[in-house]
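Hi R.,

Here's the chain you asked about this morning:
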Amino acid sequence: MGKSFDYVPTQLTHAFREAQSNEQFQGWLKMQEAVMEIEFPYDDLPEVREDMFAKESLAVVEQKLLELYDSHRTAFAPENIHTTMRYVYYVGETFRRACEGDWVNVPVGDDFIPAIDFPMREAMIRPADLIKGAVNRRTGKELTVIFGHAERDYREWAAAGKPERTFLGSLRED
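And the predicted structure, written out as C-alpha coordinates:
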Protein backbone atom coordinates (compact mmCIF):
# COMPACT_ATOMS: atom_id res chain seq x y z
CA MET A 1 0.00 0.00 0.00
CA GLY A 2 1.22 3.47 -0.85
CA LYS A 3 1.37 6.27 1.64
CA SER A 4 -0.86 9.30 1.35
CA PHE A 5 2.16 11.42 0.42
CA ASP A 6 3.26 9.17 -2.46
CA TYR A 7 2.55 11.50 -5.35
CA VAL A 8 4.39 13.93 -7.55
CA PRO A 9 3.36 17.51 -6.72
CA THR A 10 1.73 19.14 -9.76
CA GLN A 11 4.28 21.96 -9.93
CA LEU A 12 7.12 19.43 -10.22
CA THR A 13 5.75 17.52 -13.21
CA HIS A 14 7.03 17.78 -16.76
CA ALA A 15 3.48 18.41 -18.00
CA PHE A 16 3.09 21.39 -15.68
CA ARG A 17 6.41 22.94 -16.69
CA GLU A 18 5.64 22.51 -20.38
CA ALA A 19 2.11 23.90 -19.97
CA GLN A 20 3.43 27.28 -18.85
CA SER A 21 4.49 28.12 -22.41
CA ASN A 22 1.13 27.13 -23.91
CA GLU A 23 0.37 29.84 -26.50
CA GLN A 24 -3.36 29.84 -25.77
CA PHE A 25 -2.73 30.37 -22.06
CA GLN A 26 -0.13 33.09 -22.66
CA GLY A 27 -2.47 34.81 -25.11
CA TRP A 28 -5.31 34.68 -22.59
CA LEU A 29 -3.11 36.32 -19.95
CA LYS A 30 -2.10 39.13 -22.32
CA MET A 31 -5.66 39.69 -23.44
CA GLN A 32 -6.92 39.87 -19.85
CA GLU A 33 -4.18 42.31 -18.85
CA ALA A 34 -5.33 44.60 -21.67
CA VAL A 35 -8.98 44.20 -20.76
CA MET A 36 -8.23 45.25 -17.17
CA GLU A 37 -6.91 48.55 -18.52
CA ILE A 38 -9.71 49.22 -20.99
CA GLU A 39 -12.92 47.27 -20.70
CA PHE A 40 -13.31 45.90 -17.17
CA PRO A 41 -13.07 49.12 -15.12
CA TYR A 42 -15.30 51.03 -17.52
CA ASP A 43 -17.84 48.56 -18.86
CA ASP A 44 -17.94 45.58 -16.50
CA LEU A 45 -17.42 47.04 -13.04
CA PRO A 46 -16.81 50.79 -12.88
CA GLU A 47 -17.42 50.63 -9.12
CA VAL A 48 -13.89 49.28 -8.62
CA ARG A 49 -12.11 51.58 -11.08
CA GLU A 50 -10.45 53.64 -8.35
CA ASP A 51 -9.53 50.63 -6.23
CA MET A 52 -8.62 47.89 -8.71
CA PHE A 53 -7.39 44.64 -7.19
CA ALA A 54 -7.99 45.73 -3.61
CA LYS A 55 -9.24 43.25 -1.03
CA GLU A 56 -12.37 45.35 -0.54
CA SER A 57 -13.23 45.14 -4.23
CA LEU A 58 -13.89 41.40 -3.96
CA ALA A 59 -17.20 42.00 -2.17
CA VAL A 60 -18.27 44.30 -5.02
CA VAL A 61 -17.15 41.72 -7.58
CA GLU A 62 -19.08 38.95 -5.85
CA GLN A 63 -22.23 41.05 -5.62
CA LYS A 64 -22.01 41.79 -9.34
CA LEU A 65 -21.52 38.11 -10.13
CA LEU A 66 -24.64 37.27 -8.11
CA GLU A 67 -26.58 39.86 -10.10
CA LEU A 68 -25.29 38.54 -13.42
CA TYR A 69 -25.57 34.79 -12.89
CA ASP A 70 -27.90 32.41 -11.07
CA SER A 71 -25.42 29.50 -11.16
CA HIS A 72 -22.06 28.42 -12.52
CA ARG A 73 -23.81 26.90 -15.53
CA THR A 74 -25.09 30.32 -16.52
CA ALA A 75 -21.78 32.01 -15.73
CA PHE A 76 -19.78 29.61 -17.88
CA ALA A 77 -22.34 29.23 -20.67
CA PRO A 78 -20.94 30.02 -24.13
CA GLU A 79 -22.79 33.33 -24.35
CA ASN A 80 -21.31 34.51 -21.02
CA ILE A 81 -17.86 32.92 -20.97
CA HIS A 82 -15.91 35.96 -22.16
CA THR A 83 -17.40 38.21 -19.49
CA THR A 84 -17.00 35.55 -16.81
CA MET A 85 -13.36 35.01 -17.72
CA ARG A 86 -12.69 38.71 -17.17
CA TYR A 87 -14.02 38.26 -13.63
CA VAL A 88 -11.92 35.09 -13.27
CA TYR A 89 -8.83 37.09 -14.17
CA TYR A 90 -9.77 39.97 -11.86
CA VAL A 91 -10.27 37.66 -8.87
CA GLY A 92 -7.07 35.74 -9.61
CA GLU A 93 -5.05 38.90 -10.09
CA THR A 94 -6.32 40.26 -6.77
CA PHE A 95 -5.09 37.11 -5.00
CA ARG A 96 -1.83 37.10 -6.98
CA ARG A 97 -0.92 40.66 -6.08
CA ALA A 98 -1.74 40.25 -2.39
CA CYS A 99 0.23 37.04 -1.90
CA GLU A 100 3.19 37.16 -4.34
CA GLY A 101 1.58 34.50 -6.48
CA ASP A 102 2.12 33.64 -10.11
CA TRP A 103 -0.36 32.90 -12.87
CA VAL A 104 0.09 29.31 -13.96
CA ASN A 105 -1.53 26.98 -16.42
CA VAL A 106 -2.79 23.74 -14.88
CA PRO A 107 -2.80 21.29 -17.80
CA VAL A 108 -5.91 19.19 -18.31
CA GLY A 109 -5.71 17.39 -21.61
CA ASP A 110 -5.61 19.95 -24.41
CA ASP A 111 -7.27 22.61 -22.28
CA PHE A 112 -5.75 25.03 -19.85
CA ILE A 113 -6.99 26.05 -16.45
CA PRO A 114 -5.62 29.34 -15.14
CA ALA A 115 -4.57 29.21 -11.52
CA ILE A 116 -2.57 31.17 -8.99
CA ASP A 117 0.45 29.38 -7.55
CA PHE A 118 1.56 30.74 -4.20
CA PRO A 119 5.13 30.61 -2.85
CA MET A 120 3.94 29.66 0.63
CA ARG A 121 1.99 26.48 -0.09
CA GLU A 122 1.59 23.62 -2.50
CA ALA A 123 -2.10 24.17 -3.18
CA MET A 124 -3.04 26.53 -5.98
CA ILE A 125 -6.20 28.57 -6.29
CA ARG A 126 -8.22 28.27 -9.47
CA PRO A 127 -10.16 31.52 -9.77
CA ALA A 128 -12.81 29.90 -11.99
CA ASP A 129 -13.59 27.55 -9.10
CA LEU A 130 -13.92 30.56 -6.77
CA ILE A 131 -16.43 32.11 -9.18
CA LYS A 132 -18.35 28.82 -9.36
CA GLY A 133 -18.50 28.60 -5.58
CA ALA A 134 -19.59 32.21 -5.22
CA VAL A 135 -22.47 32.03 -7.71
CA ASN A 136 -23.65 28.64 -6.47
CA ARG A 137 -23.46 29.28 -2.72
CA ARG A 138 -24.82 32.84 -3.05
CA THR A 139 -23.65 34.01 0.40
CA GLY A 140 -22.03 37.19 -0.89
CA LYS A 141 -18.95 36.38 1.22
CA GLU A 142 -17.24 33.48 -0.54
CA LEU A 143 -14.47 35.48 -2.21
CA THR A 144 -13.63 37.58 0.83
CA VAL A 145 -13.53 34.60 3.18
CA ILE A 146 -11.19 32.62 0.93
CA PHE A 147 -9.08 35.72 0.33
CA GLY A 148 -8.80 36.12 4.11
CA HIS A 149 -7.42 32.59 4.42
CA ALA A 150 -4.86 33.20 1.66
CA GLU A 151 -3.88 36.53 3.20
CA ARG A 152 -3.43 34.89 6.63
CA ASP A 153 -1.27 32.12 5.15
CA TYR A 154 0.80 34.72 3.33
CA ARG A 155 1.33 36.83 6.48
CA GLU A 156 2.42 33.75 8.46
CA TRP A 157 4.84 32.75 5.69
CA ALA A 158 6.26 36.28 5.46
CA ALA A 159 6.62 36.49 9.25
CA ALA A 160 8.58 33.21 9.16
CA GLY A 161 11.10 34.82 6.80
CA LYS A 162 9.56 33.57 3.53
CA PRO A 163 11.04 30.07 3.71
CA GLU A 164 11.36 27.98 0.57
CA ARG A 165 8.19 26.07 -0.18
CA THR A 166 8.12 22.42 0.73
CA PHE A 167 5.93 19.90 -1.08
CA LEU A 168 4.06 17.20 0.79
CA GLY A 169 4.21 14.79 -2.12
CA SER A 170 7.24 12.57 -1.68
CA LEU A 171 7.69 11.40 -5.28
CA ARG A 172 9.55 13.27 -8.04
CA GLU A 173 9.64 12.83 -11.79
CA ASP A 174 13.06 12.06 -13.21
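The chain has a mean pLDDT of 94.

Let me know if you need anything else.
M.
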